[in-house]
Design a protein that fits this description.
Chain A has 203 residues and is an alpha/beta fold. Chain A has six helices and seven strands, in the order βαββαβαβαββαα. In chain B, the strands form five sheets. Chain B has an eight-stranded mixed beta sheet. In chain B, strands 7-6-9-10 form a four-stranded antiparallel beta sheet, with no helix packed on it. The chains are: A alpha/beta (203), B alpha/beta (430).
Chain lengths: 203, 430
């Protein structure tokens, strides 16, 4: 049985570890709602290392400018060519921020330019149903960052399948808390993470 | 008187000769020998007017199906047919691959040491020297009819022909598993090789992500089912029933052992883990870097793949279907961590596995290959069927008796009678 391991990308530039509580929270969510065989702890994987190819789903976030090294760029390209899915979240929630500008440039150089993902994409019904597209975050609703509520995610789609999913929603802030505090929410705000993981495992 | 008696005797002899000539066609000539190259002209004439009791053929090569069938018809009409020839025995079987890419294994029966040349309408595909029993070839998609020409020392040749067959009708493969990397990339590999994939990935109790129509299993839709994780008893029994009806099954050893209904059909028993013997996925032996459940084949089991002496994949026929059991659980790592060709190699491996198990009804209404129009897969065997086994060498016989003597005999008869009558008048008797 191939166990799902939540992997966080470690890259040379920027602050790759800006959401340290998020992996454990998402692992808890996966175990809570699904029968997916999930490893109890996540891993950190260097983006330019061959180890990247041991984890077909990788999460990448940060606040600071992102500049991939040549090795990182090559590995990301190879990772996607093999069928891997990269989930990138803008921890600034700011389309004018340095992370967004540089990360989208790097994704375009390494893989392909990002494009808006329709809110009817199977991603939004892979497990829970999100009929209005990506769920809003408290950061968006509180007017932080770029003071926008982003109605769509961005993606690189290849052969009908998302290979890079990019968010300005700041899920890295929204989901960055201890899983024990889920009991404080009337509705679990990490449910969309289940869709992302299930999509990665089944599409 | 003497002349008169001589004339009477001559008349009686001519009469007897005429009776013999008149009787001869009914009794027939014992044998007429015909060379193979003359069949085209000889058989139509023979059909309208048989020339002898036995048609003896001296053949340099097996005759074409048309002449064979004609000979068989003559035999049924009462003419004995024998043949002799020094050509090599040959037969060919084309075993079509069930994989969407087509291709086939071609088995040619030929005398040991004979040269076997395989060709389609575009030209020579491959050649080989026959070992004991013949030669085998693995060929890709074919253009038109396939011909196997067998030559032996001395120059005698014989050829077998079979239709090339088009690419197989692409049917569905149902992939049933829990959501996971192995199931996802197995399905992706099959799609990459042209299979149409129905899939059901279970993500939670009572909840699955489905693609297409993976369930219920039906040989009319599904060429095979891939089961990577255990199913409930009812579904396991349905999978077993599908196999018994002729469906193909690729099952992981871990799943099979958890489903008694499927385990009963499995070709092997699951044993202890075989640990990977390599750290990296080398292009020439990539699966050495994978750990797998060691398999111990049962009496029906056929070993498909070994790794460092341990059986990793086995197969067996189960009722009307076929089961392929794999001990591997994480071949997706090979696709990801292997070299540049790993994605294609992983896809080819999975496609081959499914192709081994896949249910593929024979095209053309299930007729055997040799019965297809234009096929001549076993010309010598067909000749034996049409004209019986080979006889010893036959020599060309004397030409048949001509009926041209009858007028002469009649003339002699009349002349003798007239002479006798004239002599009797001269004597004053009549």
């Amino acid at each position: 049985m191939s166990t799902f391991v939540f992997a966080t990308a470690q890259y040379e530039s920027g602050d790759w570890d800006s959401a340290p509580l998020l992996p454990a929270n998402i692992i808890d969510t996966i175990a809570r709602y699904t029968t997916i065989d999930v490893a109890p702890a996540g891993v950190v994987v260097p983006l330019g290392s061959a180890d990247l190819l041991r984890y077909p789903f990788v999460y990448l976030t940060g606040h600071l400018p992102v500049r991939f090294t040549d090795q990182e760029r090559a590995m990301v390209r190879r990772f996607n060519d093999r069928g891997g899915m990269l989930f990138v979240d803008d921890h600034n929630h700011d389309v004018d921020g340095q992370f967004h500008k540089t990360a989208t440039e790097e994704i375009a150089r390494a893989v392909a330019p990002l494009a808006p993902l329709p809110n009817t994409d199977p991603l939004y019904s892979a497990f829970f149903h999100f009929d209005d597209g990506p769920p809003d975050t408290s950061q968006e609703l509180n007017g932080w960052g770029d003071n926008l509520v982003h109605r769509q995610l961005l993606a690189v789609v290849r052969d009908g399948r998302i290979v890079v999913l990019y968010s300005n929603k700041d899920y890295s802030s929204e989901w960055n808390y201890s899983p024990r505090n889920k009991r404080l929410f009337a509705v679990d705000n990490t449910r969309f993470a289940v869709n992302i993981i299930v999509y990665a495992l089944t599409r | 008187m003497t002349i008169e008696r001589a004339a009477r005797a001559a008349a009686l002899a001519a009469l007897a000769g005429l009776v013999w000539v008149a009787w001869a066609p009914a009794r027939g000539q014992p044998r007429v020998v015909v060379r193979g190259e003359a069949l085209a002209g000889e058989l139509p004439r023979w059909t309208s007017a048989p020339r002898a009791d036995t048609l003896a053929l001296r053949l340099a090569a097996p005759p074409a199906p048309l002449w064979r069938d004609w000979l068989a018809a003559l035999r049924r009409e009462g003419t004995a047919v024998t043949w002799s020839g020094g050509f090599p025995l040959v037969a060919m079987e084309r075993v079509a691959s069930a994989e969407p890419g087509g291709g086939a294994a071609v088995l040619v029966a030929a005398p040991s040491g004979a040269r076997v040349r395989l060709a389609d309408t575009l030209g020579t595909i491959d050649s080989a020297t026959a070992g004991a029993g013949g030669a085998s070839f693995a060929v890709g998609p074919l253009a038109g009819a396939l011909t196997a020409r067998v030559s032996v020392q001395g120059g005698a040749t014989a050829a077998a022909r079979a239709s090339g067959g088009g690419p197989p009708a692409t049917r569905f493969v149902s992939v049933l598993a829990r959501a996971g990397w192995e199931a996802k990339f197995a399905a992706a590999a099959l799609e990459a090789r042209g299979w149409r994939v129905d899939a059901r990935f279970v993500v939670a109790p009572g909840l699955a992500v489905t693609q297409g129509r993976p369930w219920p299993l039906d040989t009319a839709r599904h060429a095979a089912v891939v089961v990577l994780d255990s199913l409930g008893p009812a579904e396991a029994e349905a999978v077993a029933a599908y196999v018994r009806r002729g469906g193909g099954l690729v099952v992981s050893a871990r799943a099979a052992v958890a489903m008694p209904a499927v385990e009963a059909l499995a070709p092997a028993r699951r044993a202890a883990k075989h640990r990977a013997t390599a750290l990296a996925f080398a292009p020439n032996d990539p699966r050495a870097a994978l750990t797998f459940d060691r398999l111990i084949p049962g009496p029906r089991g056929v070993v498909i793949e070994r790794e460092a002496g341990d059986v990793a994949v086995a197969a067996a026929r189960a009722h009307a279907g076929r089961v392929v059991e794999t001990g591997y659980d994480d071949t997706w790592r090979w696709r990801f961590e292997g070299g540049d060709a790993a994605v294609a190699a992983h896809a080819a491996w999975w496609s081959r596995l499914v192709g081994l198990a896949a249910y593929q009804p024979e095209r053309g209404g299930g007729r055997p290959a040799a019965a297809r129009l234009g096929d001549d897969a076993a010309p010598v065997a067909s000749l034996v069927f049409a004209a019986g086994p080979a006889a010893g060498a036959v020599a060309l016989a004397a030409a048949p008796v001509s009926r041209g003597v009858a007028p002469w005999l009649f003339a002699v008869l009349i002349a003798a009678l007239l002479l006798e009558w004239a002599l009797r008048r001269v004597r004053g008797v009549a």
